TrEMBL record:
This is Rhamnulokinase. It comes from the Bacteria. It holds the Pfam family FGGY_N. Keywords: Kinase, Transferase. It comes from Mucilaginibacter gotjawali.
Amino acid sequence: MSAIPVIAIFDVGKTNKKLFLFNENYEIVFERTARFIETVDEDGFPCENQESLRLSIFDSLSEVFRMKEFRVKAVNFSAYGASLVYIGENGRALTPLYNYLKPYPEELSNKFYNAYGGPDKFSLETASPVLGSLNSGLQLYRLKQEKPELFTKVKYALHLPQYLSFLLTGYAYSDLTSIGCHTGLWDFQKNRYHEWVQHEHVSVKLAPIVVSDKVSPALFPGTNYKVGTGLHDSSAALIPYLINFHEPFVLISTGTWCISLNPFNNSALTAGELKNDCLSYLQFQGKPVKASRLFSGFEYEQMVKRIAEHFNKDEIKYRNINFNPEIIKHIKTGPVVFQNSDVIRKESVFKLRDLSGFKNDLEAYHQLMIDIVQLQALSTNLVLKNSPVKRIFVDGGFSKNSVYMNLLAAAFPQMEVFAASMAQASAVGAALSIHREWNSKAIPNDIIGLKYYSTNQSAVI
């Protein structure tokens, strides 16, 4: 029996590091998950165990190459953003992999923004809200300011996906999906690096930009697989939708964060949108994607705990609650009006509600979902404005929540609302980005499963 041609994808999250093998039909034929104990940087702040990650890449590939049932034709990476690896002339990392949650010095932040027109002007130009270390470009600025001697030794500052690719190829590249993700590096108005990158002599530390379907030969003798340059995971997750659907859509990617992504809204960010936690990404073809963010997945988990404790129920109960329109009618005295406001709340009003006013936990749960969806509608409308979108896709945790999906359909009666299901969207996107380099078949049209939610089936809220 001949070996199955596959692509190996390393999908590196903050918590879980996964390896997938996909066959030419984009079916997972092998997977492995690892977790590493964090280490600390020189300041004692928790950070990724960079050496464990590096060794894991090589060990996992060695294991796969020993499997005679598979023939690895290519390797690619999707990984979390806002993380830089500083490599020296010998290709070795010079510093820990600093955590993007590490507090950013206020004095240094003020110095930077004062030099480049203030935070509001800078954020508009770079489509990057002021996020401290989450603006990875400011991490590089910090290294230059606080450790100038170390900065001079840096050959390249690579975003994490591109560093992982570098380990296998020895080629250092930059990728637009990593550059264009709230880094503060890219001027979205001029479609080039922002002026500060040149003024601060940072540009020489950034590797050449290549297209997202670029592949390089593996570094190791006797191997003939191709290696992609890696992608930022949020942008990678959008790729299957861009390839499979050509009519304009918005993708609401739900998890801890609920991010509304509109690849069909090319308008520049406004000051008001930035205040409401909007930003722009660069997708794999280099085009801007307007996005809005909510922390709703985190809020949902906290409020479900609150409901369970109040009504003395097990939290597991709420993993699969069926939508009940009669409960919606009972607990609401009138329709919710989805109004635009100057500043959208960061969390719903449910936290302020008195749970003793509900007859039972199911009433409270439905009210929680009404409040979350009301906020989601406001957030999503920010990126829908002035765009031709008629479809909304929801993936991630809330796509499996029938209460959420029915309420969302009711909130957008003019839209077609679908729950999307796909195994490992970021990994599939990384594989699709270099499809022609490893796959002899046409891209299948059934990678994404859809379930339609009709407004007629939902309560009008």
